[in-house]
Amino acid sequence: MRTAHTTAHQVLAWVQTWIAERRAESSRLVVVTRGAVAATDSEAPDLGSAPVWGLVRSVQAEHPDRIILLDIDDSDASARALPAALAAAGSGGEPQLAIRGGVVSVPRLVRVTTSGQPAATSVPRDVPALEKHDDHVPVGLPKSLDPNGTVLVTGGVGVLGGLLARHLVTAHGVRRLVLTSRRGPDAPGAGELRDELTDLGAQVHVVAGDAADRGSLAAILAAIPAEHPLTGVVHTAGVIDDGLVGSLTPQRLDGVLRPKVDGAWNLHELTRNDDLAVFVLFSSLSGLTGGPGQASYTAANTFLDALAGYRRAHGLPATSLAWGQWAQASGITGQLSDADWSRISRAGLRLLSSAEALELFDTSRTLDRAVLAPAPLDLASLRARAGTHAIPSLLRGLVRPGRRAARPGAIGTISAASSIRTRLAGLGESERDAVILDLIYTEVAGVLGHASTDTLGEGRAFVELGLDSLTAVELRNRLNAATGLRLPATLTFDFPTPTALAGFIRAELGDAGDQSAGRPAPGTAGREQHRDSGGLASLYQQLIKAGRVDAAAQLIILASHLRPAFDAAARHEHAPHPLHLSSGEARPNLVCFPALSALSGPHEYSRFSNAFQDDRDVFVVPAPGLPEGDVLPDADRTLIQMHVEAVEQIVGDEPFVILGRSMGGCVANSVVAGLEARGIFPAGLVLVDSYPIDAPLVPGMEWWNTALLTALLERLDRYDMTTHDTRLSTMGTYNRIFAGWQPEPISAPTLLVRAEEPLVGMPSDPDSKQDWRAYWPLPHDVADVPGDHFTILEEHTGTTAAAVRKWIDALD
Q: pTM value?
């Protein structure tokens, strides 16, 4: 369904522009849809706009109180009710509304019952503000599956699809199954699953096919014999590509929408004339609640929920199961980190064992509902948090919310910010810093799932404490609620230590005891101190957007001559402190070097190091000026000598591997050469999508610099860093001092990890003469991994880390 894709693209672009606009930080955006959600079960949702609600729900989770979702009908009464509804939403903290015939409804999750007893499932429904409706079209309870019929399971050889296939055979008497996956019989475990089901008495066909490809699906359905007609469809196929909304692109969004949205729509259209007993869509609770970093996934799942309502409104069977978190790892959940599981637990979700999940699947077969949420909730945990943290609006029918912190400008609520201001009133600067620092450590412990702050230690950077992009967002949101500020999205990026952040927040709050009108407004004072004028950055932007990439590169190099520099004799005074990101007993250890761009810093390895937690030690050696520091090295040899000495101190007698990303790979190569010259031999060198520095000068590769700098500028825009003149001049300094650099021959074995996806502007055909993929002129092994030049250490960190681990484990 192309309309769903197109609409999602448009809304993604609008939302990204909105959240990046600093002038709009104190305002709210209202996203208005028409019929995208079903306010009653009798409505047929507009499937083209349905994904918008899932996408925006995740944006609301990342940026609380900045966006309202509103769905309306065509009635004059609803138009008249609109202003009052928005005013009530703003003051009452209702982020999602629907208006039908002038009546305002809000979504709530409520329990359903079966046979007079409470069921373990919950159904999302809209609870109107004035009265409670229970309108739905009685499609009827699901029919039993005919043993003579055939059941199609998409994603049928995956973890969840395989569990369900076994259950259909053993518990529902299904004797004929068609299990599809993109790799079909060649998928891992497909043969074993087929043999197991055959031994249980079923006839099983494992087919290579893509439900999102209409032709492929039509051929699979046509092959089902008439004597064993299709009687059931279960759509479990799906992929995940998590990332904060600012990092999403239309291509990444489509990659997640395609298997769920296009696959489900093809299944609907190609089977609508079949006499189906079952049409089940595997959705996710996140599509209803929203989740930070899951905008594409929530958009896809919201479409499935809407499709179930659409089918039932047209008299066709359908159930969308908005699953909670299964305990058994699947292709979607297998890469979740400890921080991810901790975040899921804090959200009040109790993990579902496979046995519980299959029992809930059976329960759903007894209920006459379009959308059901088989999601056991830890209500006690949610109630315990209700006094200090906002309860998701969807769950307020199950958990009474505490008194909410006041948003800036809100009236009639008790402000958590007033508490911190009261504590700060009358204190001296150092005392205020101590109070704010205690608040920061408390919230960091909370987002990381620590029982107390004692385990965090002092003086460690956020990246050392284990914060990644998602936990950094949660920390920012907690601090916003606690202080009443609108802290920037780049909070832990700009202020990489709790102490630095405490100073920034103190400046943002101003003098808590000074109530004069002249006190700086929250959200302005400290930011002005820590931001640049934007003059260099503005010119840099204009040149790149005008296509004058070479001039932009020369501009920041010229600006770099204004930066103070230190020579090799003074290197010890300016050497940044190496960071210890993870610990473990396996060897060799990893010592990482970040890239040298305006976006660079130790944070590049947050997720990567989490993948090695409790496995092996991972260190990162920052470069001066990234993220902090005004004085920069005068030459590449000064930086390399500093780094060689840092590695010597870190590794001692332990075996180790050096790793560098992008231009950091060039640094890593020189560090290995410097160590080997001292008689210290690393076990290996890993280059993460590194090119030689002279790549843009190679005939036929002029596009390389344009594509890379354009993508960099887009990220600077996204993270609100386009006023960071110092970061750009720092990048210019490193570009200048590494001009003419060439890789040095080394004895250490080398792995080049290459991104499988090109950046915009790069030749898309890897077999063309203009191969965009990373290359290295010295001997090396190659591992290709999903993602582009940036995302292989962002959203695709798990597969990148797995490739590195596999290569390291194979070293002699």
A: 0.73
